[in-house]
Amino acid sequence: MSEQEAEKVYAYTPGLKVTESLNIQKTRLLPLPGEVMVKKGDKVDFDTIVARAYAPG
Q1: Does the pLDDT at position 51 exceed 70?
Q2: Are 25 and 40 in contact (CB under 8 A)?
Q3: How far is residue 31's CA from residue 25's CA, in Å, rounded to a whole number?
Q4: DSSP conformational letter for 27
Q5: Which of 24, 27, 44, 53 would be a feasible disulfide site paired with 32, CB 3.0-4.6 Å?
Q6: Do residues 38 and 24 touch, judged by C-beta distance below 8 A?
C-alpha cells in the first residue's frame, strides 16, 4: 500500500457521524454547593474549569 493510499484508509465505529464541525451542549451539575466560573454563552475549551465545589474537611 502506498503512502497516498494509506492516508485514505479510515476505520470508524458503525453509525458514527463524521462532521467537520459540531457544537456540543452539556448540562453539568456539581455534587456539592459551589461556584460557577463562566457565564452562559461563554466559549470554553475542553480543559476550561467551568465550576468548582469545595468539599468540607
Answers
A1: yes
A2: no
A3: 19
A4: -
A5: 53
A6: no
